[in-house]
Amino acid sequence: MEALVAAVTIFVLAVFVGFEVITKVPPTLHTPLMSGSNAISGITLVGAVLAAGTDHTLLTTILGFSAVLLATINAVGGFMVTHRMLAMFRRRD
Amino acid sequence: MGFAITNIIYIVASVLFILGLKGLAHPRTAVRGNLLASVGMLLAVVATLTDRGIVSWTVIIAGLVLGALIGTVLALKIQMTGIPELVAVFNGFGGASSVLVAGGALILAVADGTTDNTMLIATAATGLIGAVTFSGSLIAFGKLSGKLSGNPWLFPGQQVLNAIVGLGGVGLGVWLVMNPEATIFYWILVGVSFLFGILLVIPVGGADMPVVITLLNSYSGVAAAATGFVLSNNMLIIAGSLVGASGLILTQIMCKAMNRSLANVLFAGVGALVTDGPSADDVYAGKIKTTSADEVAMMLDGAQRVVFVPGYGMAVAQAQHAVHALANLLEQNGATVEYAVHPVAGRMPGHMNVLLAEANVDYDKLKDMDEINPSFDQTDVAIVIGANDVVNPVARTDPNSPIAGMPILDVDKARTVVMIKRSLSPGYAGIPNPLFSADNTLMFFADGKQAVQEIINAVKEAA
């Protein structure tokens, strides 16, 4: 129960931090914001790594492998395409 | 000891994610912000690899290497016009991954006898939200890439069916929490939720896609956070909630920019409705003035201030480079040039800004609606390329119109408006646009890129 309360506390605080930080992103950068935050949601990779490494049954290994694969595509692809986009936002003097 | 170090690294990674998102507050700091966030991800994964529960690394390494390869190729090969569909795909993969992680965790917990209510509720939630994210994103990908029709797909009894399938998913979740040993129910839950995701997105039309993908973006974060509750892992909870909040804010901004509620966007199927406003003939007959490249060039010759108004049509025609070339030419001739970007122009938030940035347009010249609207009455020429509903003055004047109350770009207040458009066909809302027949409007019927190119040539010849 105590662990749950701690987890919920973290959840609520993180949502608030998210609201505070994201509201300051200007409309010009909304597409990179989406693809960048989308890459962050690839954090499920952490869970995928844990699942893939347990060596429990063939089924869990397959599930783990697929989860690692998909989450890595999400994270790596997301950060890279965001970088490509952001590198184009320049001020010409 | 190992546990403590892992958690400390998780805190560092969380801070990097927050700093990364904070960096996106300005184009100057955004590149660094994105790099910080990706370093955070790397740290989190490396810290996890040292976990005691991991006994086999081969599968992990194989997944990481293959995934990184595929992700890199997709990210480098995509054209900027294809960004919305790529984001949809990545988003779907994140959701699917959460579903698989929670499924694996459930099997392990049942085998070890370590299930508890928190974990089971979180597992059911992950299955539901993750699967909706996955299938919804796939449909969004289909619609955005043109592989599926962008029209809303409506049928009788749709809402009832949606409600039944949605409630079925929730019911299966409750069943799973009470009978966790039958893990097969988790996969049935996932299947039903997958169907639910499809049903939720098919009635949404093309121009409402910005709302759908921001919402799915939020879901993928919530799914990751729910997975965090499954695994009691703070890293997933923190990062997932950040993304969930981000997607929700963008969804809200998009809805506000269309003056519609989220429920209306998701369920009303706008564009398929026949509205009984004035017909196109009433609005346009005998009042349309067409123009040519030479005439536009002549007007631009004396213009002090020119504003470009891009819409989805500019993306389709790939006209952004031509637009920038014309802007350069006008600036050389002493005019001030700016770009007016409506929040829902294009297929995702900020879509136009990315395309114009790709064409090397200075980001300082990209103005949002509130910033540019007061300046239209001092604008000599407003050139609208492939935008329609977002410049339709009916939104201000006719309370019965489907777009009534939607904030629009006040293009009609410019001295002269040049509408570059293929035909008089209506925009997404399906209503005629009185701006086309206004006294100060000239219609240039052509493909966006071709029209701008012709104007460039005419301006050069005149000089």
Task: Please describe the biggest sheet of chain A, giving its number of strands, its sense, and whether it closes into a barrel.
Answer: none
Tell me, what's the shape of chain A?
flat
What gross morphology of chain B would you assign? elongated
Biggest sheet layout of chain B: 6 strands, parallel
Short descriptors:
heterodimer, A: 93 residues, mainly alpha, flat, B: 463 residues, alpha/beta, Rossmann fold, 3 domains, 6-stranded parallel sheet, 18 helices, 60% helix, elongated
Describe the protein.
The complex is a heterodimer of chains A (93) and B (463). Chain A has 93 residues and is mainly alpha-helical. In chain A, 77% of the residues lie in helices and 0% in strands. In chain A, helix 2 (30-40) runs antiparallel to helix 4 (58-88) and helix 3 packs antiparallel against helix 4. The N and C termini of chain A lie far apart (58 Å). The mean pLDDT of chain A is 94. By secondary structure, chain B is of the alpha/beta class. Chain B folds into three domains: 1-77; 81-273, no CATH class; 280-462, TPP-binding domain (Rossmann fold, 3-Layer(aba) Sandwich). Chain B has helices at residues 2-23, 27-49, 58-77, 83-112, 117-145, 158-178, 184-201, 209-231, 234-257, 262-267, 280-284, 293-301, 312-317, 320-332, 351-358, 369-372, 394-397, 448-462, and strands spanning 305-310, 336-341, 366-368, 381-385, 416-421, 441-445. A six-stranded parallel beta sheet of chain B has the order 3-2-1-4-5-6. In chain B, strand 2 (336-341), helix 15 (351-358) and strand 3 (366-368) form a beta-alpha-beta unit. The radius of gyration of chain B is 25 Å and the shape is elongated. The relative contact order of chain B is 0.09. The mean pLDDT of chain B is 93. Classes of the chains: A mainly alpha (93), B alpha/beta (463). The interface between A and B is large, with 81 and 114 residues.
